[in-house]
Amino acid sequence: MSCKRITHVIRGDAPGKTTELNGFRLGPADAPRKVLLQAALHADEQPGILILHHLLGLLKTADEQNLLNARFVLFPMTNPLGMGDIGFRQHQGRYDRASGVNFNRDWPDLYEAVNTTVAPLLGDNASANVQQVRQALKAWLDGMIPVTALQQQRHFVMQEAIDADYVLDLHCDSDALPHIFSVPQSAAVMQSLSDWMGAAATLMTEDSGGSSFDEVWSGLWIKLAHAHPDRPLPMACHSATLEYRGQFDVFDHLNQDDAQRLYGFLQEQGLIGGERIRARPPATPAGTDLAATDMVRVERAGLLAYRVRLGDQVKAGEVLADLIALDGEGAFVQRIPVHAETDGVVISRAINKYVWPGCSVAKVAGKQKLASRGRYLLQD
């Protein structure tokens, strides 16, 4: 039995204040592959905490039976700083109060951090090249001196991700169907994950523009392969953001099922042995370009009245919702239609129906790239 608790103490930005980041390590120390799973990086997105609670129990049992074929690291609540963001009897948790930084944006560009160092060291052996890159990453991180609480928290998590072959970051949307964000280079792995997860969509791009946590790990290997086409550089880390429905979808029966499905995916990847936890679920839709997803926004304040439900197939130009005016001559009378820009499936809506200019009120996952999407492809 190898389950070990991890406790990192984060020195606070204010005198007398510290925070604990807790996690778990499981599996043989000499296993060739490693999996990092974390939840609640956006601390107001909590289904993943309950999912990893249930998955941890499954992994402990597998560990006791010597069924783990990889090293596993779990941070069920990877953002204790954000969990403490409580004010006026409301929890926030998406942005760092001290800096204003979105907890899942602006992570370091790992390619820029190590490329100069590793470029002259790359050879003709793919495995050796992977080790060179990971050693350079470790040296770079070891040389960092994190000062702020946010920097410390990120540093602890990044140290665990350096040598991970899989990085799975569990999030949720506002009100949504399960879906995934990843990169096209991991399409085969993500199709397996999507099938097990029961995802309504898998949205793919090499660079969303936001430097999210999962993207910097896959992006490292993509950028290195582009920069050194004459050297064998495999996709050494399959990383993804897993959106587990909406913020209110925190229920034992639901998230226990999610954990079993995630376990089934890990078994299918050869990371866990033993009898299959359940029959393989049916295939889900193939991945599509993130730039084909319509992030529907409103241009004025109002109250939303949806005409569509999650999972509805819509056409470009179709009215998704009406925005009821709250001021001016049309106040409480005028209904302003909110249209879809593309054909596709409605995968998310907003829980809060009071919205203001720039708010994203729906995602429609389409198949044709939209010129209007620009270079920044994320919601915020």
Give a quick set of tags describing it:
about 375 residues; alpha+beta; Aminopeptidase; OB fold (Dihydrolipoamide Acetyltransferase, E2P); 2 domains; nine-stranded mixed beta sheet; five-stranded antiparallel beta sheet; 8 helices; about 25% helix; about 25% strand; globular
Q: What report would you give on this structure?
A:
The protein is α+β, with helices and mostly antiparallel strands. It has two domains: 4-286, Zn peptidases (Aminopeptidase, 3-Layer(aba) Sandwich); 291-373, RNA polymerase II/Efflux pump adaptor protein, barrel-sandwich hybrid domain (OB fold (Dihydrolipoamide Acetyltransferase, E2P)). 27% of the residues lie in helices and 26% in strands. The chain is built from eight helices and 20 strands. The strands form four sheets. It has a nine-stranded mixed beta sheet with strand order 1-2-4-3-7-11-9-10-12, with helices on both faces. Strands 8, 13, 15, 18 and 20 form a five-stranded antiparallel beta sheet that branches. Strands 17-16-14-19 form a four-stranded antiparallel beta sheet, with no helix packed on it. Strand 3, helix 1 and strand 4 (70-75) form a beta-alpha-beta unit. Helix 3 (110-118) packs across helix 4 and helix 6 runs antiparallel to helix 8. The longest helix is centred in the N-terminal third of the chain and has 18 residues, at 47-64. The two termini are 43 Å apart. 41% of the residues are buried. The mean pLDDT is 97.
Structural class: alpha+beta
Sheet with the most strands, sense and barrel status: 9 strands, mixed
**Lateral arrangement of strands in the main beta sheet:** 1-2-4-3-7-11-9-10-12
Quaternary state, please?
single chain
CATH superfamily of the largest domain: Zn peptidases
Return the CATH class of the largest domain: Alpha Beta
Count of distinct structural domains = 2
Radius of gyration: 21 Å
Distance N to C terminus: 43 Å
Named CATH architecture of the largest domain: 3-Layer(aba) Sandwich
Regions with pLDDT < 50 over 5+ consecutive residues?
A: none
